[in-house]
From TrEMBL, chain A:
<comment type="similarity">
    <text>Belongs to the succinate dehydrogenase/fumarate reductase iron-sulfur protein family.</text>
</comment>
<dbReference type="Pfam" id="PF12838">
    <property type="entry name" value="Fer4_7"/>
</dbReference>
<dbReference type="GO" id="GO:0022904">
    <property type="term" value="P:respiratory electron transport chain"/>
</dbReference>
<dbReference type="InterPro" id="IPR036010">
    <property type="entry name" value="2Fe-2S_ferredoxin-like_sf"/>
</dbReference>
<dbReference type="GO" id="GO:0009060">
    <property type="term" value="P:aerobic respiration"/>
</dbReference>
<dbReference type="GO" id="GO:0046872">
    <property type="term" value="F:metal ion binding"/>
</dbReference>
<dbReference type="GO" id="GO:0051537">
    <property type="term" value="F:2 iron, 2 sulfur cluster binding"/>
</dbReference>
UniProtKB/TrEMBL annotation, chain B:
<feature type="transmembrane region" description="Helical">
    <location>
        <begin position="205"/>
        <end position="232"/>
    </location>
</feature>
<protein>
    <submittedName>
        <fullName>Succinate dehydrogenase / fumarate reductase cytochrome b subunit</fullName>
    </submittedName>
</protein>
<keyword id="KW-0479">Metal-binding</keyword>
<feature type="transmembrane region" description="Helical">
    <location>
        <begin position="116"/>
        <end position="145"/>
    </location>
</feature>
<keyword id="KW-1133">Transmembrane helix</keyword>
<feature type="transmembrane region" description="Helical">
    <location>
        <begin position="72"/>
        <end position="95"/>
    </location>
</feature>
<keyword id="KW-0408">Iron</keyword>
UniProtKB/TrEMBL annotation, chain C:
<dbReference type="InterPro" id="IPR011280">
    <property type="entry name" value="Succ_DH/Fum_Rdt_flav_su"/>
</dbReference>
<dbReference type="GO" id="GO:0008177">
    <property type="term" value="F:succinate dehydrogenase (quinone) activity"/>
</dbReference>
<dbReference type="Pfam" id="PF00890">
    <property type="entry name" value="FAD_binding_2"/>
</dbReference>
<dbReference type="GO" id="GO:0005886">
    <property type="term" value="C:plasma membrane"/>
</dbReference>
<feature type="domain" description="Fumarate reductase/succinate dehydrogenase flavoprotein-like C-terminal">
    <location>
        <begin position="513"/>
        <end position="647"/>
    </location>
</feature>
<dbReference type="InterPro" id="IPR030664">
    <property type="entry name" value="SdhA/FrdA/AprA"/>
</dbReference>
<dbReference type="InterPro" id="IPR036188">
    <property type="entry name" value="FAD/NAD-bd_sf"/>
</dbReference>
Length: 248, 234, 648
């Protein structure tokens, strides 16, 4: 396959940035999208042009490091992570535009690499259960109904890639935040901190300059792990409950 | 920069995006209920001038003598005005926040699954706000009176939507359609914001949103169009 | 054995911390004899932890909770992305919730036997003891393990053991455990007990007066070379499978932290012990950057075969039954397709070496579900393996419900690592090593669902109870950036970076890495021979010389420079690769996952030599250009009788 790439190049945080065109020949349909970028980088290096920086690590769809906007869609045309997208999803002769996640909360570091530290800080604000090592009761002390455990698991599969923010017209981090609120809120162990958790996490979410949620659903539609949109409703319910109780 | 330690001061959740959205949802719900009542009143036009004017007059008397004359009307007006102001204030804050959150735009952006209605919320809302002002000046206060002033609400209606004032009708139709779209996404969004969305209920909530917005749109379009096309006249 | 062309034999090494007495009392004894640190004094003591996988994040969280000042580092943009996250299968624990005869002793026994008698009995027993607490701890943190309808935890049998002791969270157990540890870590970050440095890579260890006192790290965003000091350093930096270029490791996994420590005096134990996993998706072309594992559970229902004829390129569906060779069922009639990982892997390599492999390059064998679909129905197969089939289809573009899958072995885990004593302390005082980065508990072969168990045992329960004993010696002398050792270490790092950037050669870093990977896979992979290994050593030396002459790294140090990061990692792999080959060369026996051509039974099975090789091979760095020194730690088995494995 022959492919024309329009790749966002940006030297650093303060650089303006621009799309640069590159032509690639002999692209195999069996390559992953990131392997195609590897090939581009090998070629650029030999031509004395700096390779394109992009985040990636496990390349099996679980670490959440990779993620670029491909032709206007977070992670590209398939609902999966960028590393699991393959060139067979494109046609010979295609022009493909590759951009970084764009959000004030995710400033560009270089080229396609952004800083997602805001997500870690949302977790720091309350995305945990306080259970210091050694304090745990026996694992069977607290049976958990399977439907609750399953829903907690579904929410817990979030990989923190940030596609939800990238796809949201408001650059909202609500699906990410809601996934954690739902995961921990469905479990009996998560109850003692439930009311304060949601308040602290939402406050941090807002502090980080993410936009608000307008229930449009683009986040859940691009989520490679299928985090359900209704987790956001669960978060809202929890937050309103907390505010009503005066936890705010 | 690469240090991700929590340093920022936390704000209070009473002013959070979720709280603001909830305020929009509650005020939106009040306005939707009002719209349905308003539409019911409008449809009285098909029962003739007497019924229509009687209904309008009845509103002024509602609650009397428990309340002073026009008391109910003023309570309703205050609640509605407060709702509108809160609704607009919240959207202004959230809109500005969203614009700041996506400070750099994408060069290429594709819609994945969002509804057309969800695109129309903000600018459609602005159109509706302008219309409401015009609408009050036209049919409530009667300060703007195409086709002539009248003490009869029925006559004000019929005068205003005569074929020669097609642009008034057109503005009205456009605004009502904008309301329809606004409700299509707004009802869904309000339910989700207030915590009613569950995967199993998603279809039902959307069906309700579509149904209410269709009923309201058609219900509001019928009276003026009936006048314009001569089905209702003095 | 005497000195050879490749190494010299030094003094044996002894684990002085190992307690004696009945095996079930040893951990208690050690915990009791270890010195404690008064909570008020903990605030005055600091610990650096490199890596935020299961072993690193759990240790950082736990030491932070205990009140130490912890500084944590990871090369990823978030501690949540460490490669523990990719573990699929599960985590073993001797809970005996199934009442099926499991016990701490049985888990201990299975692990020692599975490690082919090359691990320490004391360590493995402690691991089995800690396994029980791990599950409790993780559940308390909110890890959503699979549950049954009664609300209690589900277990499954894994990796051929006869008891159901594996706890799991669908196929994402590693992810869920890591997120649990990550959340505990983030909680401590918020509490101010842990300072987190993401996108930081450790490039050198600072040793002052013989003690580990800090690290040199590069801020990968700004390029700043920083010196960080502490009273103790913990390396939890994972394994080195990426020396093979293609492996199931993440792209960034590297040996630099442990290798730099090795060069500063920490012994590197059993570097040649690598685990090769039989069911990975095969390579599809030269551009391939990584290999993806598919759960071993597929072998429960799939049948593995290749065509009988060499070079048979027909569509597999057109090959009649009698022209297929179900070679595992043929050679190992009693275990069939369920033989252990090492045997399945080697058999696949053998048939491919014979020219009967399938798919691109002839490096693959069929894993066929046609019989299973006929027997159970497609719906049942889908229910059981649907997500794996989807993953296979996404990667290969082939539909495994219609065409047999193609699989090939791939490097998956490295049992070798820095030598540590019972306290997880290396031969450099104050340098502790946890998780896959140490050599400790798996011997020559790791059992399925044991890696997660070891990482968390080390981080939550072992290290926090043993590091006290060292820290109690404090307060330690203050050191700052002006200390000659710190200056020298920093200077070393800077000059190496300057060299990379100034070479301006003609080959990319990846091209060297790929070539090294080919050499390692060919000669130091599943089957090794003296001839091959000596050849590999020469090839690696030549390649290393060429690398330092001709590598091309563009850009500068003062920015995010991924080629520069890779160059440093590959430079260390080029040194490690040689040591791995030397280790493999000296170990003239077949053990665990490692088949030595010169050491086999009459019918071609692995032959261990317990009389000669029942020891840990701990290698000492003797300076560039000098032969490494072999220090042996003898292994004694008081509880488990040494036996040869047989699966026929």
């Amino acid at each position: 396959m022959n492919i024309t790439l329009r790749v966002w190049r940006q030297k650093g945080r303060d650089d303006q940035g621009r799309l640069v065109n590159y032509k690639l020949t002999d692209v195999s349909p069996d390559m992953s999208f990131l392997e195609m970028l590897d090939v581009l980088n090998e070629k650029l290096t030999l031509e004395n042009e700096e390779p394109v920086a992009f985040d990636h690590d496990c390349r099996e769809g679980i670490c959440g490091a990779c993620g670029v906007v491909i032709d206007g869609e977070a992670h590209g045309p398939e609902v999966t992570t960028t590393c699991q997208l393959h060139m067979r999803s494109f046609k010979d002769g295609d022009t493909i535009t590759v951009e970084p996640w764009r959000a004030k909360a995710f400033p560009v570091i270089k080229d396609l690499v952004v800083d997602r530290g805001a997500f870690d800080r949302i977790i720091q604000a309350g995305g945990y259960i306080s259970a210091p090592t050694g304090t745990a009761p026996d694992a069977h002390a607290n049976p958990i109904p399977k439907p609750d455990a399953d829903r907690a698991f579904d929410a817990a599969t979030c990989i923190g890639c940030g596609a939800c923010v990238a796809a949201c017209p408001n650059a909202s981090g609500m699906l990410f935040t809601a996934a954690k609120v739902t995961h921990l809120g469905m479990l009996p162990q998560g109850q003692p901190e439930r009311a304060s958790r949601v308040v602290n996490m939402i406050s941090q979410h807002d502090e980080e300059d993410f936009g608000g949620c307008t229930n449009i659903g683009e986040c859940a539609a691009v989520c490679p792990k299928g985090i359900p949109l209704d987790t956001i409703s669960q978060l809202n319910r929890d937050l309103l409950g907390s505010l009503a109780k005066g936890v705010g | 920069m690469a240090n991700s330690t929590l340093t920022k001061k936390r704000s209070t959740a009473y002013g959070s995006t979720v709280a603001l959205k909830s305020a929009m949802a509650v005020t939106g719900a009040i306005l939707v209920l009002y719209l349905i009542a308003h539409m019911y009143g409008n449809l009285k036009v098909f029962s003739g001038q007497e019924a229509f004017d009687g209904y309008a007059h009845g509103l002024r008397e509602l609650g009397y003598p428990l309340l002073p004359e026009q008391g109910f009307l003023w309570i309703a007006r205050i609640v509605l005005l407060a709702s509108i102001l809160i609704h607009i204030y919240a959207v202004a804050v959230l809109w500005r926040r969203a614009a700041r959150a996506r400070n750099d735009r994408y060069q290429v952006k594709k819609r994945v699954q969002r509804t057309y209605a969800s695109y129309t919320m903000r600018y459609g809302g602005v159109l509706i706000a302008f219309f409401v002002v015009f609408h009050i000046l036209h049919l409530t206060v009667n300060a703007i009176a195409p086709g002539g002033k009248s003490d009869s609400p029925f006559e004000r209606l019929v005068n205003g939507f005569q074929p020669e004032f097609w642009y008034v009708t057109l503005f009205y139709v456009a605004a009502v359609i904008a309301v329809g779209f606004h409700l299509r996404h707004g009802i869904w969004s309000a339910m989700a914001t207030l915590g009613a969305n569950k995967a199993s209920r998603q279809g039902k909530i959307n069906a309700v949103a579509v149904a209410v917005s269709l009923v309201v749109t058609i219900g509001f379009l019928l009276p003026p169009l009936a006048v314009t096309f001569g089905l209702v006249s003095k | 054995m005497s000195d050879t062309d490749y190494f010299v034999v030094g003094d044996p090494i002894l684990d002085e911390k190992a307690p004696e007495g009945p095996i079930n009392e040893r951990w208690d004894k050690r915990r009791f004899s270890a010195k404690l640190v008064n909570p008020a004094n903990r605030r005055k003591l600091s610990v650096i932890i490199v890596g935020t996988g299961l072993a690193g994040a759990s240790a950082a969280a736990t030491l932070g909770e205990a009140g130490y000042n912890v500084t944590s580092f990871c090369y990823q943009d978030s501690p949540r992305r460490a490669h523990s996250i990719a573990a699929q299968g599960g985590i073993n624990a001797a809970k005996n919730y199934r009442n099926d005869g499991d016990s701490i002793y049985r888990l201990f026994y299975d692990t020692v036997k599975g490690g082919d008698f090359r691990s320490r009995e004391s360590n493995v027993y402690r691991l089995a003891q800690a396994s029980v607490e791990i599950i409790d701890q993780c559940v308390a943190q909110g890890v959503p393990f699979a549950r049954e309808y009664g609300g209690l935890l589900d277990n499954r049998s894994f990796g051929g053991v006869q008891v159901s002791r594996t706890f799991y969270a669908r196929g994402q157990t590693g992810q869920q455990l890591l997120i649990g540890a990550y959340q505990a870590l983030e909680r401590q970050i918020a509490a101010g007990t842990v300072q987190m440095n993401t996108r930081h890579e450790m490039l050198e260890l600072v040793v002052v007066d013989g003690k580990a006192r800090g690290i040199i790290a590069r801020d990968m965003v700004t390029g700043e070379i920083q010196t960080h000091f502490a009273d103790a350093v913990v390396l939890a930096s994972g394994g080195y499978g990426n020396v093979f270029f293609l492996s199931t490791n993440a792209m960034g996994c590297n040996v630099t932290a442990t290798w730099r420590a090795h060069r500063k005096g920490a012994l590197f134990a059993n570097p040649c012990y690598t685990q090769i996993h039989p069911t990975c998706i095969p390579v599809s072309g030269d551009y391939q950057s990584k290999l993806t594992l598919m759960s071993e559970s597929l072998r429960n229902d799939g049948r593995i075969w290749v065509p009988k004829e060499h070079g048979d390129t027909r569509d597999p569906r057109q090959i009649p039954e009698d022209e297929r060779d179900y070679y595992l069922e043929r050679i190992y009639p009693s275990f069939g397709n369920l033989v252990p990982r090492d045997i399945a892997s080697r058999a696949a390599k053998n048939v491919c070496d014979e020219g009967r492999g399938v798919g691109p390059g002839g490096l693959g064998v069929y894993l066929d579900f046609a019989d299973a679909i006929q027997r159970m129905g497609r719906a049942a197969v889908e229910a059981k393996y649907g997500n794996l089939f989807d993953m296979y289809q996404r990667i290969t573009g082939e539909n495994p419900y219609e065409l047999p899958m193609r699989i090939y072995p791939a490097v998956h885990y490295t049992m070798g690592g820095l030598w540590v004593d019972y306290d997880l302390q290396s031969t450099i005082p104050g340098l502790f090593v946890t998780g896959e980065a140490n050599f400790s508990d798996h011997g020559a072969n790791r059992l399925g669902a044991s890696a997660l168990m070891q990482g968390l045992a080390d981080g939550y329960f072992v290290l926090p109870n043993t590091i006290n004993d060292y820290l109690a010696e404090g307060p330690f002398e203050k050191v700052d950036e002006s200390h000659p050792e710190a200056v020298a270490a920093k200077e070393q790092v800077t000059s190496r970076i300057d060299t990379f950037l100034s070479l301006q050669g003609s080959r990319t870093v990846d091209s060297f890495h790929k070539e090294l990977g080919h050499i390692m896979w060919e000669y130091c992979g599943m089957e090794r021979s003296e001839e091959g290994l000596t050849k590999a050593i020469e090839l690696i030396r030549d390649l290393r010389e060429e690398f330092w002459r001709d590598v091309k790294v563009l850009g500068t140090n003062d920015e995010l420079n991924q080629a520069l990061e890779k160059a440093g990692r590959v430079a260390d792999f080029l040194e490690l690769g040689e040591l791995m080959c030397i280790d493999a060369l000296h170990r003239r026996e077949s053990c665990g996952g490692h088949f030595r051509a010169e050491s086999q039974t009459e019918d071609g099975e692995a032959l261990r030599h317990d009389d000669e090789f029942a020891y840990v091979a701990a290698w000492e760095f003797a300076g560039d250009g000098n032969k490494p020194v072999l220090r042996k730690e003898n292994l004694e088995y008081e509880y488990v009788e040494m036996k040869q494995r047989s699966y026929k």
